[in-house]
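Module 6 notes. Inverse folding takes a fixed backbone as the condition and produces residue identities as the prediction. Think of it as a translation problem where the source language is geometry and the target language is the twenty amino acids. Below is one complete input and output pair. Work through it position by position during the lab.
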């Protein structure tokens, strides 16, 4: 029986979203030191590389139905790309605006994934999965908007909405990952008991 990477992949997304939320919360209150930026950047790079490896490998799992590969691998690779782009920008002191515009384009792709999940009731929890992709997409668009407005023109309510979006994404991904792990173990045990 092949390993199903989706549970761990969802937990990676949860870690990234919640750590980004913590970073964003700290950023809205004060300017972070260069060492803090590099530390967060390094974490994002590590998460992005691991997620990229898992996202790419999902395409080679024959046990997963094609529709799940299409949705989850794409979502995980988008996550990986954004984590790496943000991490490199932070670690090397690059301007983060281009990374935020990349997030906007990726946000549109994530919103389309949410539409696809909803239209075809994909996953065991289609509502949670639709929300996961949809709120991720909106959060990415919000990051680009905040970046465009800049720190001086950034309305606090909009910053709070974007922060809330990523907290929600982190919690939804954690819920989905934990549920997937439980379901995968339960299915595997049922198959072994029936054999």
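Target side of the pair, the amino acids:
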């Amino acid at each position: 029986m092949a390993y199903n990477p989706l549970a761990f992949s969802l937990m990676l997304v949860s870690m990234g979203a919640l750590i980004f939320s913590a970073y964003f919360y700290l950023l809205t209150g004060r300017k972070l030191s260069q060492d803090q930026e590099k530390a967060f950047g390094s974490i994002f790079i590590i998460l992005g590389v691991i997620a990229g490896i898992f996202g790419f490998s999902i395409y080679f799992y024959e046990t997963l139905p094609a529709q799940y590969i299409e949705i989850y691998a794409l979502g995980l690779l988008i996550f990986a790309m954004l984590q790496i782009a943000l991490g490199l920008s932070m670690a090397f002191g690059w301007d983060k605006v281009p990374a935020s515009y990349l997030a906007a384009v990726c946000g549109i792709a994530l919103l389309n994934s949410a539409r696809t999940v909803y239209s075809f009731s994909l996953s065991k929890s289609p509502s949670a999965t639709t929300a996961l992709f949809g709120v991720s997409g909106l959060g990415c668009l919000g990051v680009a908007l905040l970046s465009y407005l800049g720190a001086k023109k950034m309305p606090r309510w909009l910053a709070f909405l974007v922060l809330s979006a990523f907290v929600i994404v982190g919690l939804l991904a954690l819920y989905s990952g934990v549920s997937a792990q439980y379901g995968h173990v339960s299915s595997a045990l049922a198959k072994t008991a029936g054999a």
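Reference fact for the lab report: Residues 57 and 84 are 18 Å apart (CA to CA).
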